[in-house]
Automatic annotation (TrEMBL):
Domain of life: Bacteria
Biased composition (Low complexity): 399-409, 440-458
One GO molecular-function entry: endonuclease activity
Lineage of origin: Bacteria, Bacillati, Actinomycetota, Actinomycetes, Micrococcales
Alphabetized InterPro entries for the sequence: DUF222, HNH, HNH_nuc
CDD domains xrefs: HNHc
Similarity remark: Belongs to the Rv1128c/1148c/1588c/1702c/1945/3466 family.
Every HNH nuclease domain range: 327-377
Annotated stretches, region: Disordered: 399-467, 483-503
Keyword line: Endonuclease, Hydrolase, Nuclease
UniProt keyword Nuclease present: yes
Keyword check for Zinc: no
Protein name per Swiss-Prot or TrEMBL: HNH endonuclease signature motif containing protein
């Protein structure tokens, strides 16, 4: 029985995990529901155990750094990033779980007890910690005591509201200061949503947010009342008004700012079915992408990109500069799509050297990684190592754990997606283990076929940039004149026109085929 197990290490925990994986489904409705409840309690107990282990890891790391003479202000740097990799989550979530562990163990004992017993979910524990994060330890302990009787039968939102009310009552001055700090954190963000939609989120002070919403609500209601809705619902009108008023355009579909859209030439010009890709945001059906390009009064640029046929990855280019700028930076951002660190999907903020420039790392396609700011700063901490090729990034943490992420293809065709393995995690290797063989260089690792090579020519992708001013242009002279490609396609072609209808796309097909 699991109750009789004495778990002494991670191998014992793995035995429990494997036993659960082999458990046969219940034979009755009653048994199935009972198992669901117990497994939910087990999830909570596991979350509590993770919190203890997270705090222990942080303690061991800080103690070891103190023994090595590391300054106190530098101790524990990178701990949250390592926790995130172990949990296979983003660095931001790793930081939240590290804070949760310290709060539960040191300041909220009743919440920790309920989590350990399975009476409180990890989500609710996280909410309680978030709503009391700005309190002193003494006041936080009081809120924990007051909320202890409310764990059972209370929903997440209600639990958060009651905890926030207790916190504001106990320390009114700190509550006001917290509200003022919240105003300093106002921001706008965007994230993908199902159905090729996206959430545009603005974090604003309450009065401003309510006023903006009321203004859109009233304008949409006026359009409905005057018959100007054109078949759109009230909610659709509010969304369209938000888009047009933010961008200054006449129609919501006419995107006047730069929008990168990567798709195969067949999907753009020949009716192909391979989805397009918006770097950093995700796929778009081929037909929807063609409509986006054709049915707009905005102006369009085309830039021809070349990918290796085996992997679908961009080919490389070299630079003698210390910083990644210009076309090289753009190619790295297109290649990596989001932060390259395993399990992190934040937007790329930095393009930097995997092997640092100070250690002889080159400013090159092979040594470049697109990273979010948090991951780029984390790799600068002692003991962290990044080893990169255009095909993959291997991250080694100070404990010797290794995590590998493979670069996805530029456009996700079925054959290429099957060839991309998920991120991998390896425990530290001992001296007795055989050395890991380097990954063979793929076609994406080299500038192009060697002289006399009979290898397959690079495949073609088209990046479509919609901009407020410009022209339809085949912009490839920068790459074709930079020793990037040794290929018959290496010749200059520039075409100027304007895409305002589907007829323009048809003309482009003839131009590209010339």
């Amino acid at each position: 029985m699991i109750e009789s197990l004495q778990l002494a290490g991670h191998d014992d925990v793995a035995v429990v995990r494997d036993a659960l994986a082999r458990m046969e489904p219940a034979g009755t409705e009653e048994e199935a529901l009972d198992r669901i409840r117990v497994l939910e309690e087990l999830k909570a107990a596991c979350a509590a155990a993770q919190a203890w282990e997270t705090a222990a890891f942080d303690h061991h790391r800080r103690r070891n750094e103190a023994d090595r003479g590391v300054a106190e202000s530098r101790r524990g740097k990178g701990v949250a990033a390592e926790v995130a990799l172990a949990r296979r989550e983003s660095p931001a979530r790793g930081s939240r779980h590290l804070g949760l562990a310290h709060a539960l163990i040191g300041e909220m004992p009743r919440t920790m007890t309920a989590l350990t017993a399975g009476r409180l979910s990890e989500e609710k524990a996280m909410v309680l910690c978030r709503e009391t994060a700005w309190l002193s330890v003494h006041h936080r302990f009081q809120v924990d005591r007051l909320m202890g009787v409310r764990f059972a039968g209370t929903g997440v939102r209600r639990l958060a509201s009651e905890a926030r009310a207790h916190a504001q009552r106990l320390d009114q001055q700190a509550a006001v200061e917290q509200l003022e700090r919240g105003q300093e954190e106002r921001r706008v963000s965007v994230r993908p949503a199902p159905g090729n939609m996206a959430y545009l989120t603005a974090l604003l002070p309450m009065p401003q947010a309510v006023a903006a919403y009321a203004h859109l609500h009233q304008a949409a209601a006026t359009a409905v009342g005057t018959g100007a809705a054109e078949g759109r619902t009230h909610g659709q009108l509010m969304a369209d008004l938000l888009s047009t008023r933010l961008t200054g355009q006449d129609e919501a579909a006419d995107v006047p700012v730069e929008l990168h859209l990567v798709m195969t030439d067949e999907s753009l010009l020949g009716g192909g079915a391979v989805p397009a890709w918006i770097p950093g945001h995700g796929p778009l059906p081929a037909e929807a992408a063609r409509r986006l390009v054709a049915d707009t009064r905005a102006e369009v640029f085309l830039r021809r990109l070349f990918t290796a046929p085996e992997s679908g990855q961009l080919v490389g280019m070299e630079s003698r500069r210390r910083e990644f700028t210009g076309l090289l930076r753009r190619m790295v951002v297109l290649r990596d799509d989001t932060c390259r660190t395993p399990f992190c999907d934040a937007a790329i903020k930095h393009v930097d050297h995997a092997t640092p420039h100070r250690d002889g790392g080159s400013t090159s396609w092979h040594n470049a990684s697109g990273l979010c700011a948090r991951c780029n700063y984390a790799k600068e901490n002692p003991g962290w190592q990044h080893h990169a090729t255009p095909a993959q990034l291997e991250v080694t943490t100070p404990t010797g754990h290794t995590y590998t992420a493979t670069t996805p293809p530029l456009v996700h065709t079925p054959s290429l997606v099957r060839a991309v393995p998920p991120p991998k995690h390896q425990a530290p290797r001992s001296a007795a283990d055989p050395p890991v063989q380097p990954v063979p260089r793929s076609a994406a690792d080299s500038p192009g076929p060697a002289s006399g090579s009979r290898g397959a020519p690079p495949e073609t992708r088209v990046e479509v940039s919609k901009a407020s001013s410009g022209r339809i242009a085949l912009i490839w002279p920068e790459l074709s004149s930079s020793k990037l490609l040794d290929d018959p396609l290496k010749r200059r072609r520039e075409v100027s026109s304007k895409a305002a209808s589907s007829a323009a796309v048809a003309r482009l097909a003839a131009l590209l085929a010339a």
